[in-house]
Design goal:
Layout: H1 2-20, E1 42-47, H2 64-81, E2 85-88, H3 104-120, E3 125-133, E4 144-147, H4 153-168, E5 177-178, H5 184-187, E6 193-200, H6 204-210, H7 213-234, H8 245-248
Parallel strand pairs: 1-2, 1-3, 3-6, 4-5
Antiparallel strand pairs: 4-6
Helix pairs in contact: 1-7, 2-7, 4-7
């Protein structure tokens, strides 16, 4: 774990230097359609929700989609600084639906299908989906990592959850869990995948942190460092061929 702390520390220093050298822009134009042109291992970064779908909305009006995007942008920058190929599915407050989608439901369905297609179009992908949690009671807090059906997802999730706890919230007792079968994106891909609920927007103290740019950077640094550490400890995460998908996953109906 000491090596992982090195990567996290290096990530924070690198972002700090970039910020000091001219206001580095934490975004880039990366349309989903460009995914098929990327060769080699690619970390797909999914900022959940977007556009008309703001996701969870906090009592103060904070939308989940906005926080997701800020963390995702930082994660994209950090992983690229570490030499990784990345694909940021959205880099602004947009939905990824087709132009033909008219109603809110049609847009949501089209959006999630396009995210699935973008991941599956890559020969060697691994997915990190960024989200924020919400509950009717404000007492709950803490980041939690959910993992997909690929068997290599679980050890990666364990490393990430452990480092989120150690580096950001030692009191967080949450444990990793397999992804719920109703999460369409995570259940229709075969690559290693994590869905990270970074915290609870329903908790006032944690919401204040999640909206803070410095904390967003820290979250991204821990997630990026955990990914790099996982690949070093377990070896490069191998590609799972299309013929093996049925062994790893049992896709659910929408």
């Amino acid at each position: 774990m000491k090596e992982n702390r090195f990567w996290i520390g290096l990530s924070l220093v690198a972002l700090g230097l970039l910020g000091a050298l001219g206001g580095f822009v934490l975004r880039r134009d990366t349309p989903v359609a460009a995914s098929a042109a990327i060769s080699g291992p690619v970390v797909v970064i999914d900022a959940g929700h977007g556009g008309e779908d703001g996701g969870a909305v906090a009592p103060d009006g904070t939308e989940e989609a906005d926080v997701n995007l800020e963390v995702a942008r930082r994660l994209d920058v950090l992983l690229r600084l570490m030499g990784e190929n990345t694909l940021l599915l959205r880099d602004s407050d947009i939905s990824l639906h087709d132009d033909s989608a008219a109603t809110i439901r049609e847009k949501k369905v089209s959006d999630i299908h396009n995210r699935v297609d973008a991941v599956n179009a890559l020969e060697d992908a691994r997915l990190i989906s960024i989200h924020q949690n919400f509950f009717s009671s404000s007492k709950y807090s803490g980041a939690q990592v959910f993992y997909g059906g690929n068997p290599l997802s679980q050890p990666w999730a364990e490393t990430t959850q452990s480092e989120l706890r150690a580096c950001l919230a030692p009191e967080n007792k949450r444990q990793i869990k397999p992804i719920d079968r109703h999460v369409y994106l995570m259940n229709h891909i075969s690559c290693p995948a994590l869905l990270i609920e970074c915290g609870f927007l329903s908790n006032p103290e944690e919401r204040w942190l999640l909206k803070d740019p410095g904390y967003q950077t820290a979250l991204a640094a821990v997630i990026a460092g955990s990914y790099v550490q996982s690949t070093q400890e377990k070896g490069e995460i191998p590609h799972v061929s299309q013929s093996e998908e049925s062994v790893l996953l049992h896709p659910v109906r929408e």
